[in-house]
Amino acid sequence: MADNTYISFYLGIGRIHVFCNTVREIGEPPYIRFLLEQSGSTMLMEPYDRKEFQSLRVPKAVYRKTGKMEFRSAAFCRLLAGKLGWDYTCSYRIPGRILPKQKLVIFDLTGAFPVESARIVKDAESVPEDETGYPETI
Three-state SS for 34? Predict the structure, then answer.
């Protein structure tokens, strides 16, 4: 069964937040990597077993529920913004589906919606909130 998740792109500062539970649900890998469909409409996140140019290390604290899963990549943010016509000064949240048996996460980049200061824009669909009332972004 697929679970819903989100990834957030903060274009102005080139930062990307992955919900921690997303990484845990695909087998707690030491690294992850993203694969972008050529059209730019779909992105996959998959576990990866080694450090390479295209992989990202998952902090061990993510699995102890004491850390964040975020990284900076202004180039990746610019690439997506250019392909999808996003406003470079905005931040976006993208819905995804976790497929635990396949150890994959599929993100529909065409479903991106703007976020403001870690709160969802009123017109956007709701996302899970933590105990502070903010959307769970890490």
Answer: strand
Helix (H, G, I), strand (E, B) or coil at 102: coil
What pLDDT does residue 64 have?
A: 87
SS3 68: coil
Residue 77 to residue 91: CA distance in whole angstroms:
10
- pTM value is 0.78
Q: Cβ distance 81 to 14 under 8 Å?
A: no
Q: Among candidates 16, 29, 117, 40, which has minimal Cα distance to 6?
A: 16
What letter represents residue 16's amino acid? Answer: I
> Rounded to whole angstroms, how far apart are CA atoms 17 and 40?
19
40-53 mean pLDDT = 93
pLDDT given for residue 103 in this prediction: 94
What tokens appear for 102 in the block? 């396949």
Backbone angles phi, psi at 112, to 5 degrees: -60, 140
